Amino acid sequence: MAIPPYKSPSRNTYDIVIVGGGVIGSSIAYWLSQKLGERISALVVERDSSYEFSSTALSTSAIRQQYSNPINVKISQFGVEFIRDFSERMTPFYTDEPSPDLGFREHGYLYCISPDGVEAARERVELQRSLGAYTVFLEPGPLKDHFPWLNVQDLAGGAWGSRDEGWFDSMGLLNGLRRAARASGVEYIDNAVTALALADGRVTAATLSTGETISCGILVNAAGPRAQQVAAMAGLSIPVAPHKRHSFVFASETPIPGRMPNVIDLSGTFVRPEGEFFLTGNTPLDDGPADYEDFQTRHEEFEERIWPALWHRIPAFDALRVMQSWTGHYEYNMLDHNGIVGFHPEVTNFMFANGFSGHGLQQSPAVGRAVAELIVDGGFQTLDLTPFRYERVPLGEPFMEDAVI
């Protein structure tokens, strides 16, 4: 049985305080615990241990290697490896029950390609393949042969991840990381950081909503969509804000035969199988920053934009019925859609792990490992995430990722 976290910390000083216990914060906690062992002195402050409105819980829980820059491809390749090996990794922490299987559904992603997007798509496929990905570019004929239910009349082809892409159990990943971290000595509390104290260019303490003040050696901002709130407590600013994403589960009167991938339409609408049903969503037209507490679903998005796009791309979707819907928040980096990872150059013990723009779940294994390396080893030891450094933000130098959904 899961043990709930306490409201208050067990002591008043920690080497590392992590603000946010979602999948990024818990991955950081896990990797720190594995690197430091008995030396671990870390506290994770999570404002809602039910995770009801967390981006992790409300994610569509998928992973892909179809990105436009090499580091994101490599991050996902490690993510797939971590997901495949997750049950084995977690075995030492599940002595009373079987370790979790994340149920990785390796159906791949299928990006629909327009005539004017062929050259860029082919370049992305070649880049991905040069890094070991199994992406293939299919001309309209072979695309129709592989997926006969797809309307290809307005397509110049499709980019299909034939292996190492798909979807999995997001909460299984979070719960496993959290359990392993706690079993290894990391403390979790159900609380919120409301203020930070600074002295001589360093964060010295965090004040909690329950009134306690805790001293810290390093402060890690893993607050997801609330990242800017935490940064502001240290007098800092990052271009990260919550952006709403609506998800809809629907039933179709006509089944789709074969192994259906996650289809990304030209309109930006995606659709994939979810058991006997289907999961879909898109980028809303009103895609601006949302209120932190606004999780209201705009049902017109399905009726006015998603369903017409689905019916055009997959004609079998002519009779649909929405079964369930929800709305989550992307921690959207408005500069370049990529994560911000690293210490602040002036507030030298303030660590960013923010702004993953919908990629946080799939990137969490590699990001958690990288942050732990920066803290414990003083630099990246495995994947070099230097392009994600904070310094690009005040310089206004984006590190762009073109393949954003």
How does this model look, in words?
The protein is of the alpha/beta class. It has two domains: 13-58 and 171-239 and 335-395, FAD/NAD(P)-binding domain (3-Layer(bba) Sandwich), CATH 3.50.50; 109-164 and 241-333, D-Amino Acid Oxidase, subunit A, domain 2 (D-Amino Acid Oxidase, Chain A, domain 2, 2-Layer Sandwich), CATH 3.30.9. It is built from ten helices and 18 strands. It has helices at residues 23-36, 70-84, 86-90, 118-130, 140-146, 170-183, 227-233, 300-313, 360-377, 392-395; strands at 13-19, 42-46, 62-63, 109-113, 135-138, 157-161, 166-167, 187-190, 193-199, 202-208, 213-221, 240-252, 262-264, 270-274, 277-281, 320-333, 340-343, 350-354. The strands form three sheets. Strands 1, 2, 8, 9, 10, 11, 17 and 18 form an eight-stranded mixed β-sheet that branches. A hairpin with a 2-residue loop joins strand 14 and strand 15. The longest helix has 18 residues, at 360-377. 47% of the residues are buried. InterPro entries: FAD-dep_OxRdtase, FAD/NAD-bd_sf. Its EC number is 1.-.-.-.
